[in-house]
């Protein structure tokens, strides 16, 4: 299933037969299709990950890909009943490809300007707050379950037709033991949305990060939704962004041309020192989250 599946093709999963209607998008190792259940006619999205490869030189990477898919699926299934902001899973299967049948929505990225100078208008303040409250709540439920997302960004969030936010990708998420707020692990993610501590190793040890790194990502998302651009947009490459974050030793400079409530929430989330950032629980009672100003 490494090739693109054309409309009309059928996939038989654990609990039903699904017909491909078209492609929604694709990533490095996955493709997402619009589809429907042939019995119930319910429209949904099918995420298909290629878990096999004929080329011996790249076959080893598919082992870790399979493990990553299985871990993501376990997280998604475990969080179904405890986090209303996790995408709803209808069906799944693991054969040569890993397939997840899930809710279909529009990526949050679609609602944001592609460039800071884009003619696309910024989101209305009411919409920003509507999305923000849900993002904070979604992360709050994640952290209650001791799960760190570690790659919160518009591509990993969808908006349902009724305006509800869903978290759709937990491929590099991890769990923390009780009473532990961070741990050392190799960084993976997206530089624009990653916290400075995710890039700071010491004495040859991997970086140490956890819940507060997700809070930083929330701050970046709020900045982008409110201003139409990310704080690091002026840096041209991922290497430049990582270098900047690795050598950042103060709070991130942010746009002041926003409402006082938005500015205060952003400023708190984007503190350089992780322990100075609020928890998701604290963010949920911030005046901007509660009142929209």
UniProtKB/TrEMBL annotation:
It comes from the Eukaryota. Keywords: ATP-binding, Kinase, Nucleotide-binding, Serine/threonine-protein kinase, Transferase. One of its GO terms (cellular component) is cytoplasm. PROSITE patterns: PROTEIN_KINASE_ATP, PROTEIN_KINASE_DOM, PROTEIN_KINASE_ST. Residues 18-289 form the Protein kinase domain. SMART domains: S_TKc. ATP binds at residue 47. One of its GO terms (biological process) is regulation of autophagy. It holds the Pfam family Pkinase. This is Protein kinase domain-containing protein.
């Amino acid at each position: 299933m490494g090739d693109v599946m054309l409309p009309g093709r059928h996939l038989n999963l654990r609990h039903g037969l699904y017909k491909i209607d078209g492609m929604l998008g694709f990533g490095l190792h996955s493709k997402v299709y619009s589809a429907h259940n042939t019995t119930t006619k319910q429209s949904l999205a099918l995420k298909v990950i290629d878990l096999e490869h004929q080329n011996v030189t790249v076959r080893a990477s598919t082992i870790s890909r399979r493990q990553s898919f299985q871990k993501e699926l376990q997280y998604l299934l475990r969080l179904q009943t405890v986090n209303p902001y996790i995408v709803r899973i209808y069906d799944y299967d693991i054969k040569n490809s890993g397939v997840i049948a899930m809710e279909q929505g529009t990526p949050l990225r679609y609602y944001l300007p592609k460039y800071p100078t884009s003619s696309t208008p910024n989101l209305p303040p009411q919409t920003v707050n509507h999305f923000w409250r849900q993002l904070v709540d979604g992360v709050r439920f994640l952290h209650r379950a001791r799960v760190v997302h570690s790659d919160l960004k518009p591509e990993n969030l969808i908006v349902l037709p009724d305006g509800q936010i869903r978290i759709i990708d937990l491929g590099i998420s991890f769990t923390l033991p009780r009473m532990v707020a961070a741990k050392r692990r190799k960084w993976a993610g997206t530089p624009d949305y990653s916290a400075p501590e995710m890039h700071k190793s010491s004495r040859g040890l991997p970086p140490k990060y956890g819940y507060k790194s997700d809070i930083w990502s929330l701050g970046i998302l709020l900045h982008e939704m409110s201003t139409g651009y990310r704080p690091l947009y002026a840096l041209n490459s991922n290497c430049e962004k990582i270098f900047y974050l690795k050598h950042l030793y103060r709070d991130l400079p942010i746009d002041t041309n926003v409402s006082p409530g938005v500015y205060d929430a952003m400023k708190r989330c984007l503190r350089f020192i992780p322990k100075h950032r609020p928890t998701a629980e604290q963010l949920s009672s911030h005046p901007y989250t509660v009142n929209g100003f």
